[in-house]
Amino acid sequence: MLSHEDQIVAAIRQIIRAIDLHSRRLVNGHGMTGPQLAVLQEVLRIGPTPPSTLARAVHLSQATVTGILQRLERRELIIRQPSPDDGRSVLISISPAGRAMLECSPSLLQDRFRDNLSGLADWERLQILATLQRVAHLMEAEHLDASPHLTSGEISQQADSNRAAADPASADSPRQSHDDRAE
């Protein structure tokens, strides 16, 4: 029989695996990653917007969003237009092909998860929150960026910088960026 500790670790692995499988299905079935889909959904939601505003809205770095926008533009899913207020800046809007892509793409894993959570009683949501916050603390992950988009892969350089600032001794352990994989 597995110890409680082993069962907890197994449950965490199941969560990580679910995120990874959803990400792979999204890429294999629709040619988009979770962050790409999130950016496209946000462009549709807020309308024409500067890339910096979009980056803040999806809680990703401006550099990551720039890469995502380049990929979406190559696929003609977004349109870059000069801002009518400032010709030096651009506004990002969704193209007809982008709208069509969103109509046939699945929801993000966190959207379905959030819907399922909303069906729980308040006490159940609070219990889950307290438990997960405690798990994050036990994993010494409370200082990591909590991006609202569920993606798998290596930690980003920003998260690595946050970790190094919190624990200078850990700065010596090399990590690779997952920006390309997360896009």
Secondary structure layout:
Elements: H1 4-30, H2 34-46, H3 51-58, H4 62-74, E1 78-82, E2 90-94, H5 96-104, H6 109-118, H7 122-138, H8 157-166, H9 179-182
Antiparallel strand pairs: 1-2
Region (Disordered): 147-183
Keywords: DNA-binding, Transcription, Transcription regulation
GO biological process, one term: response to stress
Keywords:
disordered C terminus, 2 strands, mainly alpha, 183 residues, two-stranded antiparallel ribbon, Arc Repressor Mutant, subunit A, 2 domains
Word description of this protein:
GO terms for molecular function: DNA binding; DNA-binding transcription factor activity. This protein is mostly helical and 183 residues long. It folds into two domains: 22-104, Arc Repressor Mutant, subunit A; 109-182, no CATH class. Helix content is 61%, strand content 5%. It has a two-stranded antiparallel ribbon with strand order 1-2. The longest helix has 27 residues, at 4-30. The chain starts with a helix and ends with a helix.
Structural class: mainly alpha
Write down how many β-strands occur, each being a DSSP E stretch of 2 or more residues.
2
Q: In this structure, how is the largest beta sheet organized? A: 2 strands, antiparallel
Distance between the termini: 40 Å
Share of helical residues: 55-70%
Work out the strand percent: 5-15%
For CATH, the homologous superfamily of the largest domain is named as Winged helix-like DNA-binding domain superfamily/Winged helix DNA-binding domain
Organism: Roseiconus nitratireducens
Domain HTH marR-type: 5-137
Biased composition (Low complexity): 158-174
InterPro entries: HTH_MarR-typ (IPR000835), MarR/SlyA-like (IPR039422), Tscrpt_reg_MarR-type_CS (IPR023187), WH-like_DNA-bd_sf (IPR036388), WH_DNA-bd_sf (IPR036390)
